[in-house]
Design goal:
5 helices; 8 strands; single chain; about 15% strand; two-stranded parallel ribbon; alpha+beta
Length: about 300
């Protein structure tokens, strides 16, 4: 900043050197006029002998400039101080804003992590509850089947006794023949039914569903027989009422297994040979292949 620039200040403005010089000149002129008038006055007046020294213009200019320079320097120093304080305040505000932004981001990150953890815990709890419910349903189904088998044990024994007089010897032979059939692959319609049932293994169990990607027990049996052109009823109790009753020791691939009474069964599946069956069991397992020992059926019917 130049020394001649206009500098705002709270102090009283100083007079410039030119104004001081002008005033000195006017004062000198006035005093000179007075001196001349005195010399031209009456003869009895005493001459003026006192000499007044007036400040020179150069000395007045130097003093004014020095004062102006000092004032300008002081104003410049004050302005620099004001600018420094303003810069410090601006830097402090920027730092505070940056720290506040960082703190907010950290708070948002923690909140998001807490929400994710809460969602994960809720999902795990829900999965555990669903698994427990499925296990409870499966246990209840097994208990119900066990009770039904116990209640029907007398009826089953009576049915076997009524047929023993006419085919007691043939039952033994049939059992041996069954063993022979176990070692051979099914053929014809039985092979197609077995193949269809096994192709659905892994599908979901959904009550009332008839495929193609989810089934209930009777829906799977109905669809398997429909694949070879045989129309079966939709309900398991009606399916087990069709065909001819056969003993579990004389099963052939394609036979329909049932749980409960023949005319009141609550579950059905398809015998696929080798002491195994395929059925849509429950929501926990879906369509599976199981051994007869895993859940022994109450009886079987032969429809082919």
């Amino acid at each position: 900043m130049s020394h001649s620039a206009h500098i705002p200040s709270h102090r009283k403005p100083r007079r410039s050197a030119s104004k001081l010089a002008l005033r000195a000149g006017v004062a000198g002129g006035v005093l000179g006029t007075i001196a001349v008038a005195g010399a031209a006055g009456p003869a009895h007046a005493e001459p003026v002998t006192e000499t007044i020294e007036m400040p020179t213009l150069g000395s007045l200019d130097t003093a004014g400039l020095a004062s102006a320079v000092a004032a300008s320097a002081e104003a410049s120093q004050q302005e620099a101080l004001d600018q420094s304080l303003e810069s410090q305040e601006h830097a402090a505000l920027q730092k505070a804003a940056k720290e506040a932004k960082k703190a907010k981001a950290e708070a948002d990150r923690k909140a998001e992590a807490e929400r994710a953890e809460k969602a994960r815990a809720e999902a795990e709890a829900k999965a555990a509850a669903e698994k427990a419910e499925q296990e409870r349903q499966e246990a209840a189904e097994r208990a119900s089947r066990d009770r039904a088998r116990t209640q029907l044990s007398t009826t089953s024994t009576s049915d076997s006794g009524s047929g023993s007089g006419s085919s007691g010897t043939s039952d033994s032979g049939s059992s041996t023949g069954s063993s022979t059939n176990e070692t051979q692959a099914p053929s014809g319609s039985a092979a197609a039914i077995v193949a269809f049932a096994r192709a659905q293994i892994g599908d979901a169990y959904v009550m009332g569903s008839t495929g193609p990607n989810s089934w209930d027990c009777s829906g799977l049996v109905q669809a398997a027989y429909a694949s070879v052109g045989i129309d079966l009823p939709r309900i398991s109790s009606d399916q087990s009422s069709r065909g001819t009753s056969v003993s579990l020791s004389n099963l052939q691939p394609g036979d329909v297994l049932y749980w409960g009474s023949r005319s009141g069964s609550y579950h059905v599946a398809i015998y696929v040979g080798g002491g195994k069956y395929v059925g849509a069991q429950n929501p926990s397992t879906g369509v599976v292949e199981r051994s007869l020992d895993w859940d022994t059926p109450s009886g079987a019917v032969r429809i082919l």
